[in-house]
């Protein structure tokens, strides 16, 4: 029993963090929301060079065949930096659905996928930029064409109504794919929550009111301490779920990471005040991302039911 | 990253499971805050000790099994899953013992630990004072140097187990000119010594789980001072982190309670109005179990328990309350009747208060983990 990340995993997380700290993901999100995928795809390619897109792809298709723990490490950092694009669909879910040459181009970062997963993922993410579009229903795969563009609470998630096309046969392992989709979403929620905490702490330590930093007031401190506690206890659930991939554990992680991120978002807004409510501030991007991800890949209700079943 | 147990650890767990299955009393013991229950618990501790299960993580020479931290956590899980009694000497075993292992002399360890392991001496903690509470550094009880030891005067209050316990440990002010954290001394006091008066205080359940202790010029020999006089605060911090952190609140206890809660909910016909809270209680208990395994790994790598202990305490104290309140809501009108769940609920209410209130813990998390500006507490 060794319940801690390995040196390689820590290093991988740091590499991702260093790379993403040097790119402007906020403006990439805004461009993405406006239908300009250019800046977002540039980030996609740079992350592909680091191996992120190859993580779950089997070695025979030039992937790493990495573990779900590695995936969780990667997705936590994608969440922290609020990277736009169909990462969950392409990197976490697709490799478990197919045993196909297509995965070689997923690993290299050339192919993006958009996956609808009935009934929990009814709308397909970023189908306009994805070349592989798959709908999963009761273990079977179908191609789909994107119908109407729907408007998400998070503008940088472009959702489409999937219009079912050809039946492509049985999915390789739809259940496994679903668990990994939930896990990747939980990891992004944890990462986003951590960004919200870090940013709110930094803001509270420099913003002054009534002649002192607001972070010196106990009322503000205690709000942030509760956020830190929620995130600290959600993390082991995420990695525990990555180790066991047990349904109950995956659902526990999804609920706890969602709750912790949601508390971080609400508290972050409260600490920032009106500035956090503006579209110019980066906080808003995360606030709406959290809300979208809380309901994606299984609602809290669905996951709590799985915990109890 | 893995959660697999090696063969040696599995064998340890199986041995514990088998012993507990064969030995845990079929009838629950009476509360250890009654005279009769206290005696029953002493007997149980003796039985545990005879089989070397009372202090598994201690060295063999003091009655333990040299168990690793992981083995200790697994033992606790088995212990509570088996429905075994609460530990009457937990103040001694989980708070004083770690302090003695870090700061005690060899003589103190040899004299005190074996009796503690068998609960021949049950320990009370004597931290709080009437004007101090969570602000331990505001304490006023004094220890004055005398020939061969110290003369202690003053008052402690809210002392858990002191009504029936044999001895107590706590901090006293050894330098009258000192302020706050300086000039304190860590002492072990015989509760039957001349000049000691113990006044039981009934807790919410009506039993005297608390007591006031009055010290009127009580002699404490030098051999019962832990660490250097004046350094008491530093010595006590080992104990505080242990109390808030790993040792006192075993994840096994919460996981066992959460599993019972899920069963209760199913048996009650899965009432929809409590479903989310039952799920969250289980999720919280599982989170705490895994968090503890992370702590075990870090400690095995040489890290020390630090302010993360406060994160820990904030979390489990709320989990414990929420878990029991959910059970009571499932029970409906019957929740009012005294029983395991209502007793557990009363017990849980103390969590957010003792060992430093929630407010103290949140300030520690904010200042020491998040680096926010220090301020008045």
UniProtKB/TrEMBL annotation, chain A:
* Keyword Oxidoreductase carried by entry: yes
* Record's keyword annotation contains Oxidoreductase: yes
Recorded superkingdom:
Bacteria
Q: Which UniProt keywords apply?
A: Oxidoreductase
Listed EC numbers: 1.-.-.-
Q: What class of enzyme is it?
A: oxidoreductase
User: What name has this protein been given in UniProt?
Assistant: Acyl-CoA dehydrogenase family protein
Organism per entry:
Amycolatopsis coloradensis
Automatic annotation (TrEMBL), chain B:
**Protein name as catalogued:** Acyl-CoA dehydrogenase family protein
């Amino acid at each position: 029993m060794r319940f801690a990340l390995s040196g390689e995993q820590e290093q991988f997380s740091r590499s991702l963090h260093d790379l993403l700290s040097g790119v402007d993901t906020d403006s990439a999100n805004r461009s993405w929301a406006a239908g300009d995928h250019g800046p977002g795809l540039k980030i996609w390619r740079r992350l592909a060079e680091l191996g992120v897109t190859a993580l779950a792809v089997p070695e025979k298709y030039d992937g790493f065949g990495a573990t779900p723990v590695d995936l969780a490490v990667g997705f936590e950092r994608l969440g922290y930096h609020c990277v736009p694009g169909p990462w969950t669909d392409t990197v976490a879910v697709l490799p478990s659905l197919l045993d196909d040459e297509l995965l070689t181009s997923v690993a290299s970062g050339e192919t993006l996928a958009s996956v609808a997963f009935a009934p929990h993922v009814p709308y397909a993410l970023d189908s306009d930029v994805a070349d592989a579009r798959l709908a999963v229903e009761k273990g079977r795969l179908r191609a789909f064409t994107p119908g109407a563009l729907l408007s998400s609470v998070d503008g940088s998630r472009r959702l489409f109504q999937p219009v079912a096309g050809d039946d492509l046969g049985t999915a390789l392992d739809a259940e496994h794919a679903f668990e990994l989709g939930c896990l990747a979403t939980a990891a992004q929620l944890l990462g986003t929550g951590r960004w919200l905490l870090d940013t709110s702490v930094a803001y509270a330590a420099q913003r002054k009111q009534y002649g002192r930093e607001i972070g010196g007031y106990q009322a503000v401190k205690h709000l942030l301490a509760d956020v830190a506690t929620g995130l600290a206890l959600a993390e082991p659930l995420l990695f525990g779920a990555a180790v066991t991939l047990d349904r109950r554990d995956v659902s526990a992680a999804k609920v706890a990471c969602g709750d912790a991120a949601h508390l971080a978002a609400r508290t972050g807004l409260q600490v920032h005040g009106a500035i956090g409510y503006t579209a110019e501030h980066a906080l808003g991007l995360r606030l709406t991302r959290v809300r979208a991800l809380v309901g994606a890949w299984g609602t809290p209700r669905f996951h709590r039911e799985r915990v109890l079943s | 990253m893995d959660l697999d147990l090696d063969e040696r650890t599995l064998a340890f767990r199986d041995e514990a499971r088998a012993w507990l299955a064969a030995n845990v009393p079929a009838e629950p013991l009476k509360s250890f805050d009654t005279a009769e229950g206290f005696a029953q618990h002493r007997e149980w501790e003796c039985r545990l000790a005879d089989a070397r299960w009372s202090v598994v993580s201690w060295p063999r020479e003091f009655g333990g099994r040299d168990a690793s931290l992981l083995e200790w956590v697994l033992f606790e899980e088995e212990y509570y899953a088996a429905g075994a009694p609460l530990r009457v000497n937990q103040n001694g075993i989980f708070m004083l013992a770690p302090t003695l292992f870090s700061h005690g002399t060899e003589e103190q360890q040899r004299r005190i630990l074996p009796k503690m392991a068998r609960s021949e001496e049950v320990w009370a903690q004597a931290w709080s004072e009437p004007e101090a509470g969570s602000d331990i550094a505001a304490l006023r009880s004094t220890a004055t140097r005398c020939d061969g030891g110290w003369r202690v005067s003053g008052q402690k209050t809210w002392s858990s187990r002191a009504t029936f316990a044999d001895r107590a440990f706590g901090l006293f002010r050894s330098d009258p000119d000192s302020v706050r954290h300086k000039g304190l001394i860590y002492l072990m006091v015989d509760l039957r010594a001349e000049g000691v008066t113990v006044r039981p205080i009934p807790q919410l359940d009506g039993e005297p789980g608390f007591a006031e202790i009055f010290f009127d010029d009580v002699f404490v020999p030098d051999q019962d001072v832990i660490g250097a006089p004046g350094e008491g605060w530093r010595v006590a911090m080992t104990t505080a982190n242990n109390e808030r952190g790993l040792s006192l609140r075993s994840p096994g206890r919460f996981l066992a309670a959460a599993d019972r809660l899920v069963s209760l909910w199913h048996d009650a016909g899965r009432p929809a109005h409590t479903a989310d809270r039952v799920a969250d209680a289980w999720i919280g208990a599982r989170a705490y179990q895994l968090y503890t395994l992370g702590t075990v790994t870090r400690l095995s790598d040489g890290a020390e328990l630090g302010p993360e202990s406060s994160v820990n305490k904030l979390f489990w104290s709320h989990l414990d309350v929420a878990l029991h309140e959910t059970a009571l809501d499932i029970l409906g009108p019957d929740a009012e009747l005294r029983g395991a769940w209502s007793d557990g609920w009363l017990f849980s209410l103390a969590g957010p208060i003792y060992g430093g209130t929630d407010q103290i813990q949140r300030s520690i998390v904010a200042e020491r983990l998040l680096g926010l500006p220090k301020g008045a507490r």
